[in-house]
Amino acid sequence: MTPVPHLHSIRARYTTIATALSLIVAVMIGLSLDLAVRYKVQDDSFFEAERAAGLWSAAVRNGALPNPIPTSTSADLVQLVDIHGRVVASSPQAANQPPVSTHRPPPGDRLNKLTECSRDRCLILMANRVTPAADSPVVYAGMAEPSILATHRLEYLIAAGALMIVILAAWTTWWAVGRTLLPVAAIRARIAEITVSDLSLRVPMPPGEDEIALLASTANRTLERLEEAVEQQRQFASTASHELRTPLTGLRAQLEEALLYPDSVDVRGSVHNALSACDRLEAIVNDLLLAARLRAADPEPHEPVELGALVRQEAAQVHAVPVDVRAPFHVWVHGSRIQLMRVIDNLLSNAQRHAESRVTVSVERADGQAVVAVVDDGAGIAPADRQRVFERFTRLEEGRRRDSGGSGLGLAISLDITRAHRGTLRIEDSPRGARFVLRLPLLNDDHVAGDAPAADIADGVPNATT
């Protein structure tokens, strides 16, 4: 059996609304039609009665009224009644009958419409006073009320037609909405089959380019992005587990060795090595937490940030190799100061690990963007690896050799922060070493004119070597 549709169903709601509207329209049209038909039939009946009354009234004035009075129209009831209420002449249909009405039109209004009803029927009459004289006879002409007016057949017929229209409208709406929603049911059934363990399924695409087809297309694109994100999360979890397992394994081995061979193991060296492993674990965990917070779109407060000052501040913290800084004043961007400090720090730390003798940092304006370039004079990065270094836990052989304690998350985190600030972070060609270029949208000067320090008002371009 087909289940009874619940009113929460779109199909049932639309059908109910369409049925109610069609019922209202059908009732209004039916009432108007009933009134129009009744008025037309009644008006035609009075018109015929008026013609007959006028004809025989003129005949009475001319002294040429036949008896019986012949009739050739629907107004077949004709009587001539004198002042005493006696029927002087009549048509065959009104012969041997009492006067059809006792109403006498006044001299000033000689033609009156009448509806006389008895126990078994109603008559539509026109009363015509022959002359204005006090003793003037009256001609009555009319007919029995048509059955369409005397009964409710017209209302029954209109109601039956209205009911058929309402039923047809309801069925048509039910069928049309059901046919329209067929692709939605297929999409819902397919989505119900999709689980986190299997995101390869896609919803069926209906033909055409209507809203449902656009919905299916959007759902498929969303599923593709979701599948890609889940796969990235799986790879991330797998890689993170591997990266965490390596220092944990080394830490466990050192501790077990210290317990098994207490006399032959340098306890101080073992503790020092264990602390180094703990430091690496802490760095990895902190980077993982930061990466997770960035992925979860955990909002950081944004504010106007003077990028040149930020670069000079971070460059002053680097002491491994000299850092040449060329950063003009008054280069403002809008963002999280803490996160942008992390990006600059990551780029400088990466450059100083690979530099042979010097790191160069420049800040400039170009095409409505603030551009920060960090260049080292090391071996550089091969073009084939320039995208790969921004992936999580990616550490090139050169990086492992120079710093075995890194987490491999610094550049990936920097890229996520940059994208969150609507910027870009790329590795560009350089005559020597690696050139990391950070681009961020410039903040309009009108937004920061009141916030700029007095020292920054002059458009100077400081050069510093740290």
From TrEMBL:
<dbReference type="GO" id="GO:0005886">
    <property type="term" value="C:plasma membrane"/>
</dbReference>
<dbReference type="InterPro" id="IPR036097">
    <property type="entry name" value="HisK_dim/P_sf"/>
</dbReference>
<dbReference type="InterPro" id="IPR004358">
    <property type="entry name" value="Sig_transdc_His_kin-like_C"/>
</dbReference>
<keyword id="KW-1133">Transmembrane helix</keyword>
<keyword id="KW-0472">Membrane</keyword>
<dbReference type="InterPro" id="IPR003660">
    <property type="entry name" value="HAMP_dom"/>
</dbReference>
<keyword id="KW-0418">Kinase</keyword>
<feature type="transmembrane region" description="Helical">
    <location>
        <begin position="12"/>
        <end position="33"/>
    </location>
</feature>
<keyword id="KW-0812">Transmembrane</keyword>
<dbReference type="Pfam" id="PF00512">
    <property type="entry name" value="HisKA"/>
</dbReference>
<keyword id="KW-0808">Transferase</keyword>
<feature type="domain" description="HAMP">
    <location>
        <begin position="178"/>
        <end position="231"/>
    </location>
</feature>
<dbReference type="InterPro" id="IPR003594">
    <property type="entry name" value="HATPase_dom"/>
</dbReference>
<dbReference type="InterPro" id="IPR050428">
    <property type="entry name" value="TCS_sensor_his_kinase"/>
</dbReference>
<dbReference type="Pfam" id="PF02518">
    <property type="entry name" value="HATPase_c"/>
</dbReference>
<feature type="domain" description="Histidine kinase">
    <location>
        <begin position="239"/>
        <end position="444"/>
    </location>
</feature>
<dbReference type="InterPro" id="IPR005467">
    <property type="entry name" value="His_kinase_dom"/>
</dbReference>
<dbReference type="InterPro" id="IPR003661">
    <property type="entry name" value="HisK_dim/P_dom"/>
</dbReference>
<keyword id="KW-0902">Two-component regulatory system</keyword>
<feature type="compositionally biased region" description="Polar residues">
    <location>
        <begin position="90"/>
        <end position="100"/>
    </location>
</feature>
<keyword id="KW-0597">Phosphoprotein</keyword>
<dbReference type="InterPro" id="IPR036890">
    <property type="entry name" value="HATPase_C_sf"/>
</dbReference>
<dbReference type="GO" id="GO:0000155">
    <property type="term" value="F:phosphorelay sensor kinase activity"/>
</dbReference>
<feature type="transmembrane region" description="Helical">
    <location>
        <begin position="156"/>
        <end position="177"/>
    </location>
</feature>
<feature type="region of interest" description="Disordered">
    <location>
        <begin position="90"/>
        <end position="112"/>
    </location>
</feature>
<protein>
    <recommendedName>
        <fullName>histidine kinase</fullName>
        <ecNumber>2.7.13.3</ecNumber>
    </recommendedName>
</protein>
